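EI: anyone free to look at a 201-residue chain?
SC: sure, send it
EI:
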Amino acid sequence: MDHPGETYDIIFVGGGAAGCVAAGQLAAANPGLNVLILEAGLHSLNVDTHVQPARYIANLLNANKLRKTFTLHIAQPSEAVANRQVTVPAARVLGGGSSVNFMVYTRASASDYDNWEEVHENPGWGSKDLIPLLKQIETYTLPTSNSTHGTEGPIRISYPDEDLNVARQFLEVVAKYDKDTPVMEDWNDFKTGDGYGIWPK
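SC: here you go
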């Protein structure tokens, strides 16, 4: 650290999207707070493999070699997966998963949050409590007919600037031939878990 001996009111461990947004919100609410974000990984500012989505695959192919932008968590062998050890890569870079996963934006289903509250007995962690908070972090710029998106938050949600013809053609084909699975306007409506559509960033 550049300032040894300095004291902080709040320390965030992890400089992913969640940590950065929470730190920014706290600092804006109370400018007198001294807030520190600790991130084990490197910065991602103006690094091609982080800011140019077509190059993201380099991080995934060399998960623990190229700039060490992932931590590989290796689970214990489990009978549920034929006694294999599952490897779970977690981002290790400023910006977190958004800096290594093509900047895909996705939210869990409401039922996942409700399980936290009901099945795992965590009061206040259900969808009714969390959806209003999730709205606060979004500036959702896409057309949508549902009311679960925010318009004034620090994370701007949009579509890619350039459309690919092949993507549009794919959606036209599946709409014609797959009548069981809908083409969706909004992946992140908290309820529709299976469909075709354009992934926002």
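EI: The chain has six helices and six strands.
SC: 👍
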